[in-house]
Amino acid sequence: MEEIKKDENLEAQKAAAETAEAVEAEEVLEAVDETAERIAALEQQAADNLDKYQRTLAEFDNFRKRTAKEKASMYDDGVRSTIEKLLMVIDNLERAVAVQEGKADESDAFFKGVKMTLTQFQDVLKGIGVEEIKAVGEKFDPNLHAAVAHEDDENYGENEIVLEMLKGYKYKDKVIRHSMVKVAN
Questions:
Q1: Which residues, at least 6 apart from 118, have a Cβ–Cβ distance to it below 8 Å?
Q2: Which terminus of the chain faces fewer neighbouring Cβ atoms within 10 Å, N or C?
Q3: pTM for this structure?
C-alpha cells in the first residue's frame, strides 16, 4: 500500500508539476502577447512620428523655397519700380542731347557733360540688366509696344512700327514701360 501511495503521491506531484508548467507556459504566452502588442503599438507610433517628421520637413523645404522666390520677386519689383522713376530723367537727358546734337556747337563743355551723364545712365541700366525694347522697323507687339498713332503708308509692311515716340524698357523679360509707337497699315 505504501507503494501505491508513493505512486499516487508521485503521480500527484507530476500532475502538479505539469499544471504549474502549463500555468507558467500560459503566463509566458500572455507576456509574449502583451509584449507583441506593445511592440506593434510602438512601431505604429514610430511610423506616425516618422510621417509627421517627413511632412514637417517637406513643409519647411517648401516654405524656404517660397520665401526665396518672394525675396527675389521683391528685389526685382524694387528694381523695376526704381528704374521706372529714373526713366523720366533719362528721357529728358536724351531730349537734351538730341536737340544739341544737330547743332555745330557740340564742343560745348555743358553739352559734353550732359552726354556723358546720359551715357553713364545707359551703362548703369545695362549693368543692372535693363534693356531697351526694339521698336522702329519691328512688328507691333502689344506686349511690348503701345500704339498711340496710326499711319497708312504702302512703303511699310502690315503692323510695322514706323516711329518710336517714347522708348520702352524691360527688366528680366518683364516690361517696365511699353514703347509708345506709331504703327503703319
A1: 90, 93, 94, 96, 97
A2: N
A3: 0.64
